[in-house]
Structure formats: C-alpha cells, structure tokens
C-alpha cells in the first residue's frame, strides 16, 4: 500500500504534474498527520502538543489528518448500509444527487439511532480541534457524505474540477470546518480526494471562482489560478487510513477523483460553523437520536450547538435518500 505521503499525478488539460514529497519553499503539499495515542483516543481528547500540531496545520495548510480515533467496528456497520444505499442512488443516474459527475454522489447516512455512533458523528477529538479554531460550541448544521462510485459497465471514470465548497463571497478567516470521516481506507485507487494545501487563504472566494451558487458546477477555480498554483505547490491525493478523521477548512481547493477500484468509497462530511456565523441550516434526525445527543450533552461530552428538526423514524427512513446534490446547499450566512 502507498504511504500516506505518496501523491499520485494530477492532470489538467493534458499536462501532468507529479506532486513532490518535499516542501515548496514555505508551502506544503502533503497533509500533516497527527497520530492519536491510546490514552488520547480513550479520553476523547488530544494532549496539548498534538492539539497544537493539529490547530497549526489547519491555520497554515487548511487541512489536518488525525489517525486512530474511530473504532473500526463502528465504521464497518455504517459502511455496509451506506454502500447498499450508494448503489440505489447510483441507479438513479442523471436524476441522482451527484456532484459535478455521476461518479461522485452526495449521500446522507441513515439518520436513525442504530447507525448514529457518537464516535463517528460527534467525535470529541474532532470537536476539540474545531472548537480550538472556531470558538466554543461550534454549530453543526450539515451532515452528509460523498461517495466515490466505481464506474458502471461501459462507463468511464471522471474527476471533478478543482473547486471550493465556499462558492460565495466569504470571510477571509476561518468560519467553517468540514469533518470528513472515511469509512474505509482512502487511496488514489478508490478516489481519495485531491487537495491543494494552503489555498484556503486565497481571498474571499468570488474572484477566484466560476459558476453561480446553486449550479451543479459552481465554485470551480479559474484554470489560470490553479495552473499558477500548480507550479509553486502541486496538489496531493493522499492515503488516509481507516479510523482517521480529516478536518478541512471549507475554503480549501480540492477535487473528487475517479474511483478505479471495484468497491464503493464513502466519506462522511459534517460541517462545524463558528458560533458567530449566521448560517440558518438545520439537521434532520429521527426522534430516536434525541436521547443519544441528550445523554452526551448531560455528560458534558457534546460540545456542539446542534439545530435539529426532529421527525419520526418512519419519515426519516422514507426521506433520507432524497436529498439535494452538494452545491444545492447554501453554506453562506445571513446578512
């Protein structure tokens, strides 16, 4: 298997660039990896040095990987169900909730108690890091996943354009962090995300992007800009081990890549917004998740503000696969 720091070639308009494994001046193109110790994982909290390392990487690079924080058995249970659901969504073709191309599907996890593992969805180490960057009790208002699909027979794999999920004029300082949880080890073969470290600090977004918010292809980075960035700091497509979390600044340039394997690759995406950020979105969970979150809150282990619209279990199971594609969500804030 590739090491975490191996990066595959990136190709744009016929040009191929190989990401170096070294720093480019003061720029890094490989992610910082924090390996949680056994006591840190058991306690659900990083010690000071590892927390400093994670926070520093987010400010400098816009992304950090933290390994060994989620039990594999929790991931396996959820992955089995979400792979089944992904095939259902893939079968909808052009009518499905795809992002840029039908090989990358926007997919919600089943919002019911038996699949709601706190180690995954409200991981306390993830919240510790997002709190350190965004402030106390970040608001969790988005919970979904991106599934990289193996091509159907006769289909051709395709990549996403380089883009930012913050496809609107936004603050030039951290306001939203995406907590990604891969349900299996992510590799270049199964569609590990291409990341452009350091690009989260490139202005307020509007001047660098093409496409209007809400379009399937909004947030695309202008080719002249990412071509210039490629010369100074090429992108990377890292291996991320199962059991890890990836925390990414919402502004960071990235791209979904083809899944060249035969297995579906699911990566959860939860967004924590700064407590001052005025985004009106709300989560929608089955009523049987209320006790899970209430217990965490009463024990002081939640650390998040979670606006939720509670629905019946029956309604939750009937509707959770009928969500929009990624760019249909509005991550902007109210005036």
C-alpha-based Rg, rounded: 19 Å
Q: How would you state the average pLDDT, rounded?
A: 90
Profile the largest sheet: 8 strands, mixed
Low-confidence stretches: 1-6, 8-22
The helix-strand sequence is EEEHHEHEEHHEEEEEHEEEEHEH
By CATH, the topology is Jelly Rolls
> Reading side by side through the largest sheet, how are the strands ordered?
3-4-12-8-14-7-6-5
Going by CATH, the architecture would be: Sandwich
The number of domains is 1
Q: Estimate the strand proportion.
A: 15-25%
What structural category characterises the helix and strand content? alpha+beta
Shape: globular
Q: What is the share of helical residues?
A: 10-25%
Write the CATH homologous superfamily: q2cbj1_9rhob like domain
Supply the CATH class.
Answer: Mainly Beta
Number of strands: 16
* N-to-C CA distance: 48 Å
User: How many H/I helical runs?
Assistant: 8
């Amino acid at each position: 298997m590739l090491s975490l720091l191996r990066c595959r070639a990136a190709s744009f308009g016929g040009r191929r660039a190989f990401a170096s494994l070294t720093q480019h001046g003061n720029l890094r193109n490989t992610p910082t990896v924090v390996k949680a110790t056994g006591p840190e994982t058991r306690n659900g909290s990083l010690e000071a040095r590892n927390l400093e390392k994670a926070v520093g990487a987010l400010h400098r690079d816009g992304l950090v990987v933290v390994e060994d924080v989620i039990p594999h058995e929790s991931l396996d249970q959820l992955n089995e169900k979400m792979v089944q659901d992904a095939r259902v969504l893939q079968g909808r073709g052009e009518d499905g909730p795809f992002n840029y191309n039908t090989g990358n599907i926007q997919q919600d996890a089943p919002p019911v108690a038996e699949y709601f593992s706190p180690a995954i969805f409200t991981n306390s180490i993830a919240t510790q890091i997002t709190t350190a960057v965004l402030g106390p009790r970040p608001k969790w208002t988005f919970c979904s996943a991106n599934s990289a699909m193996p091509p159907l027979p006769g289909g051709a794999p395709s990549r996403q354009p380089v883009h930012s999920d913050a496809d609107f004029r936004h603050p030039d300082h951290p306001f939203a962090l995406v907590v990604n949880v891969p349900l299996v080890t992510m590799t270049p073969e199964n569609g590990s995300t291409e990341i452009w470290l350091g690009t989260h600090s490139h202005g307020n977004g509007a001047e660098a992007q093409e496409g209007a918010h809400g379009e399937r292809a909004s947030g695309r980075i202008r080719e002249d800009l990412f071509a210039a960035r490629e010369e100074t700091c090429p992108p990377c497509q890292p291996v991320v081990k199962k059991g890890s979390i990836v925390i990414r600044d919402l502004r960071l340039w990235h791209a979904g890549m083809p899944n060249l394997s035969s297995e579906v690759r699911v990566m959860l995406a939860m967004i924590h917004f700064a407590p001052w950020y005025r985004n009106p979105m709300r989560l929608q969970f089955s009523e049987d998740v209320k006790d899970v979150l209430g217990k965490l809150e009463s024990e002081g282990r939640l650390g998040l503000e979670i606006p939720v619209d509670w629905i019946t279990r029956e309604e939750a199971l009937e509707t959770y696969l009928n969500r929009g594609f990624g760019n249909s969500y509005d991550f902007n804030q109210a005036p």
